[in-house]
Specification:
Strand order of the largest sheet: 3-4-5-6-9-10-11-12-13
Mean pLDDT: 88
Helix content: 25-40%
Low-confidence stretches: 1-18, 376-385
Number of strands: 13
Bound molecules: S-adenosyl-L-homocysteine, iron/sulfur cluster
CATH architecture of the largest domain: Alpha-Beta Barrel
Largest sheet: 9 strands, mixed
Number of helices: 11
Order of helices and strands: EHHHEEEEEEEHEHEHEHHEHEHH
Length: 395
């Protein structure tokens, strides 16, 4: 793509054949499940109760087999099995880093693969979930950006990533156990920071997060879900209203000139417009603060002047600035800022009154760190020359 080409979401959803045979229950909203049950013969009067029962089996107890749903009659279970399946993505490989980070490669319909990363911490555990196979955007420092968009994930494939991680962590309550708090969870937080731009797959991301937040199931509070966007301005208010989760924004630069190169969507929605949308977010979503993600690239965006400009720009926005040391990948046209530089940058922001944590790279030994995700099996790749050209680094 040339530098002047408009940035568009050119492949919203690649038309796919309607699924043949039984429908997957995973990913249906409560309303969709109700409609599907009625269409499959459940009497309308019973539908709501059946939704509640099935919902609890699938999302609270993690059951995948209708036969285990012992509060449903045998006949009804057989009916369900005829019309529906309960399917989550298939785990193709699982890598565990020396620091405990787990990276799953999961396969979804069509044979595509996406990566899911679990990051354990002392008091919690965060799952980094993907929303697309590849990405239409071409942020020049991001490995996923070198992979063309293949398709949007369905809601089932998105919430299914949480379910496979809970399988692996063995974190489903025993059938019969209540929905109350059972102490700290291994998988307590979700970040939409894997592959893809979540706001270019809005409806599926919203539905998946609604399922994850539902109190009768996985029951993650909206404050434990963080959606990261590169800055799809028109969808930001919708995120507040329809999802209400925490928001992170891939800010990464303090001038339009540099941000255009790093996060090319900036050409469409420049910094000033983005900041307006961010200013409105906390009120609309009733959440406290926005996370500004800032990748530290040596001699590109890491000067003291940048830090001071950043503080000025975000004035008035309740914010935390998450500094991400650049994670290298083969062919990357950037280098990570020196540690002393990152600390000096963090210090300026901290002294201006903002939390400025430096994100410790996790799972680097298994290529699970931020921006390193890319399914090795996907063939539609950009060349190194393309990457450099898009970064404005070509001669
Ligand atoms: N598409 C969304 C979410 C996925 S990226 C977005 O862009 O916000 C999650 C975070 O990792 C983003 O802030 C992204 O800019 C950052 N990131 C991408 N590549 C990186 C790299 N190589 N090193 C460090 N952070 C990177
Ligand atoms: Fe896509 Fe986010 Fe990577 Fe940019 S940083 S290319 S939006 S995944």
């Amino acid at each position: 793509m040339s530098a002047s080409a408009p940035i568009t979401q050119d492949v919203l959803t690649i038309p796919r054949k309607l699924p043949q045979g039984p429908a997957n229950i995973v990913g249906l909203t409560r309303d969709e499940l109700r409609d599907a049950l009625i269409a499959a013969g459940t009497p309308e009067k019973q539908a709501k109760m059946r939704v509640n029962q099935i919902w609890q089996w699938v999302y609270h107890w993690g059951v995948r087999d209708f036969d285990a749903m012992t509060n449903l009659s045998k006949g009804y279970r057989a009916d369900l099995a005829e019309h529906f399946v309960i399917e989550v993505p298939e785990v193709v490989s699982r890598n565990v880093s020396a620091d405990g980070t787990r990276k799953y490669l999961v396969r979804i319909a069509g044979g595509h693969e996406v990566e899911v990363v679990y990051i354990p911490e002392t008091d919690r555990g965060t799952l980094c979930v993907s929303s697309q196979v590849g990405c239409t955007l071409t942020c020049s420092f991001c490995h996923t950006g070198t992979q063309k968009l293949v398709r949007n994930l369905t809601a089932g494939e998105i919430v299914g990533q949480i379910m496979v991680a809970r399988d692996d962590l063995d974190e489903w309550p025993e059938p019969g156990e209540g929905t109350g708090e059972n102490g700290p969870r291994l998988l307590s937080n979700v970040v939409l920071m894997g592959m893809g731009e979540p706001l270019y797959n809005f409806d599926n991301v919203r539905n998946a997060m609604k399922i994850a937040m539902d109190g009768e199931g996985i029951s993650l509070s909206r404050r434990r879900i963080t959606l990261s966007t590169s800055g799809v301005v028109p969808e930001i208010a919708k995120t507040a209203e329809e999802i209400g989760c925490m928001l992170a924004v891939s800010f990464h630069a303090t001038t339009d000139e540099i941000r255009n190169k790093l996060v090319p969507i900036n050409k469409r929605w420049p910094i000033a417009e983005l900041l307006d949308a961010l200013r409105a977010y906390p009120k609309l979503s009733n959440s406290e603060r926005i996370t500004f993600e800032y990748v530290m690239l040596k001699d590109v965006n890491d000067s003291d002047e940048d830090a001071r400009r950043l503080v000025k720009l975000i004035k008035g926005i309740p914010a935390k600035i998450n500094l991400i040391p650049f994670n290298e990948w083969p062919g990357a046209p950037y280098e990570r800022s020196d540690w002393a530089r990152i600390e000096a940058f963090a210090d300026i922001i901290y002294k201006a009154g903002y939390a400025s944590p430096i994100r410790t790279p996790r799972g680097e030994d298994i290529m699970a760190a931020c921006g390193q995700l890319k399914s090795a099996t996907e063939r539609a790749r950009k060349s190194r020359a393309d990457i450099a050209a898009e970064a404005g680094l070509s001669k």
